[in-house]
Design goal:
363 residues; alpha/beta; Rossmann fold; globular
Length: 363
């Protein structure tokens, strides 16, 4: 099986504005003896406003995978025939596209390649289909997605909205999943967030909920935030405003090889993010037995069950406060046990086996 993956969301450089999810899937393809090649179609205006690194237009190689970086001033209206013929000569079996740029570009070149195609939709696709400012691109994106043989969605919400054929969640490596874990500190809530520090992550709401807890004294807590982003200054100002310096701390971005160590020091992972396609950090937290708090109708829908293995709430100060108060009086060890049982459904081998079956179906 030879797979052509097309997306501008593939991390080619040390660029923290791009998540590593597609690289994780690509490495898993290689691990399970599938051949994969990547095309990164960059709409340069979009890359600039998102402060992404723009590489030269050439062939790169990363982790043994060929990656063609293609740069465009216009949003994928034309591609060189010589490049399409170069791709065609490699005899790929299927195209898998992710994100709006990936779908538009895949639809363009597949007029000549004529390969089976799977389109995987993310929250960015939903935004273009539903926000007025993207109206000029809406019809084109809608057509490019419908032209795919199968449509996949990264979460249950997107599956409903796009009437997709299947969901494609992220995964964790079996070896990082704990067999058991006990509460780290029964006298207080040990909490952690690993995230980019941007507005839609709603970390400010967590801090405000904890400020209320400091006044009511209904539960004690320690909260460590690891990340980077434009909200860091305003979050620190909130911490000082509510006199939470002894209980809430913001740290620099933690290297990936230290993530599990930091998670193991805590009991609760909280990230009431909105417009969240999936969020691998939730799965990583669950793999280490943390009670995980996410947001309703977002990426963790169908994975987290309220008061069973975590909580899904509105991004609201009062709901965050009530949720933490409930966890404080709950059987946390039972919640942790259920979390470690649920995460087994998202082991890499299980998710990839289902994914391969879907690809075989379209072939």
């Amino acid at each position: 099986m030879k797979i052509l993956l097309i997306s501008d969301l593939y991390p080619l450089f040390d660029d923290r504005t791009i998540p590593f999810v597609l690289e994780d899937f690509s490495n898993a393809f290689v691990e399970f003896n599938k051949s994969i090649c990547v095309i990164r179609p960059n709409f340069l205006f979009n890359a600039i406003i998102r402060s992404r690194t723009i590489g030269k237009q050439k062939l790169y190689k990363k982790n043994g995978i060929d990656i063609y970086n293609r740069n465009f001033f216009a949003p994928f209206l034309w591609e060189e025939n010589s490049f399409i013929e170069q791709i065609k000569s490699q005899n790929f079996n299927v195209i898998i596209s992710h994100m709006p740029s990936g779908h538009l570009y895949a639809d363009l070149i597949n007029k000549k390649l004529k390969l089976p195609r799977i389109a995987i939709v993310h929250y960015s696709d939903y935004r273009i289909m539903n926000e007025f400012k993207y109206l000029p691109f809406k019809r084109r994106l809608e057509k490019s997605i419908k032209n795919a043989n199968l449509i996949g969605a990264r979460n249950e919400f997107l599956k409903r909205e796009f009437k997709a054929d299947f969901t494609l969640p992220s995964f964790v490596d079996k070896k990082v999943i704990l067999n058991n874990k006990k509460t780290v500190n029964k006298k207080k809530l040990k909490m952690i967030t690993l995230s980019k520090l941007i507005k839609r992550k709603n970390i400010d709401l967590v801090i405000k909920a904890l400020a209320k807890a400091l006044i009511t004294k209904e539960f004690d807590f320690d909260y460590d935030i690891y990340g980077f982003g434009e909200e860091k200054k305003s979050l620190n100002e909130l911490i000082y405003k509510y006199e939470l310096e002894d209980k809430v701390r913001i740290h620099n971005y933690v290297d990936h090889n230290l993530i599990y160590k930091k998670l193991d020091e805590n009991d609760i992972f909280i990230l009431p993010s909105t417009k969240e396609t999936f969020g691998i950090s939730y799965l990583e937290a669950m793999a280490r037995g943390l009670i995980t708090i996410g947001t309703l109708s977002e990426g963790m829908e169908g994975i987290i069950q309220n008061n069973q293995n975590g909580f899904l709430i509105e991004a609201d100060v009062e709901q965050i406060y009530d949720c933490l108060r409930w966890i404080d009086i709950s059987d946390r060890d039972k919640l942790i046990k259920n979390t470690l049982l649920k995460i087994r459904d998202y082991e890499k081998e299980k998710i990839m086996k289902k994914y391969f079956e879907i690809i075989e179906k379209v072939l």
